[in-house]
Amino acid sequence: MAEISAAMVMELRKMSGQGMMDCKKALGETDGDLEKAMELLRKKGLATLAKRAGRETSEGIVITKSSDDGKTVCMVTLCCETDFVAKSEGFVETTETLADYALVCSADEGADNVLETEIDGKKFSKCLTDLVSKTGEKTEVGGYAKYTLDSAGLICTYIHFNKKIGAMVQIETSDDNVAAADSLKQVAVDVAMHITAIKPLALNRDGIDPETVEKEKAIFAEQVKGKPENIIEKIVEGKLKKFYGENCLLDQPFVKDDSKTVTEVIEQAAKDAGGEAKLTKFIRLSVEE
Fold it and tell me: How much of the chain exceeds pLDDT 90, in percent?
């Protein structure tokens, strides 16, 4: 059996971030082979992940990254168990690495797709295993989305100061000059902030699940049971309109000026820039919910 020197243990500790005793034991089990010892520690990281599979991952970071031309933007979350780990150097660095993988991922959504994405022959799932082997905490990729502009428009993001909530919006414009207008850019960021605070269920009425709509209508009808049928119909219609206004982004009163809807604010900003604009999609990501 090879002699395990202090220098070897220190080198493995530097490579893996594991404790001295764990490193010494791994080297002992692999006859002093650093690569095999590192692989063993990674396997232990996977075992840790499996053992903690049922744990809550309510801490973490939301991060965004854009291509150089701004035409492709991604937003993704890395989640863990404790705030202590979320603020650690290794976790922050891995989150930044995750953003690189998310930007080149071939799919526009789905955490599993990011895990299988490769950069320089290394999958992000391997990066995640390395992190888990260091922290011992359950860690996972949460939400992920990537938007790409095929015509004139802009993609804007907003991440709350605690880095736990973020939103991304895509707005299509009548031309590039409108998309480049500072006024529209600011409104787009403000709408993303609005999304983080107000939590819309969908972009518009078509995006609301029909079953949800029927359930709401049944509840509204029950609330006014006993009134004449024509009155019930009008009341339900009014309540449903209010429901849409509260839950559909484009119909919601804008958080910075509730005298206008989100649609009206965007249209006015585009008009001031000499053209037209339309918000076509959004996503809200959070590690807290």
Answer: 70
Output the CA–CA distances (angstroms, integers) from residue 100 to 77, 133, 211, 282, in the order listed. 12, 21, 38, 21
* Of 256, 271, 249, 287, the residue nearest 170 (C-alpha): 249
59-66 vs 72-80, strand pairing mode: antiparallel
Domain of residue 164 covers 151-208+248-289
Q: With contact defined as beta carbons under 8 Å apart, do 26 and 144 qualify? A: no
Q: Looking at the domain assignment, is residue 91 inside a domain?
A: yes
Reported as a single tens digit per residue, the pLDDT across 139-153 is 999 999 999 999 999
Q: In a 10 Å sphere around its CB, with 0-12 CB exposed, 13-18 middle and 19+ buried, how is residue 164 labelled?
A: buried
pLDDT digits (tens, 9 = 90+) for 11-35: 888 777 777 888 889 899 999 998 8
182 and 252 assigned to the same domain: yes
Asked if residue 106 has pLDDT above 80, the reply is yes
Q: What is the pTM of this model?
A: 0.82
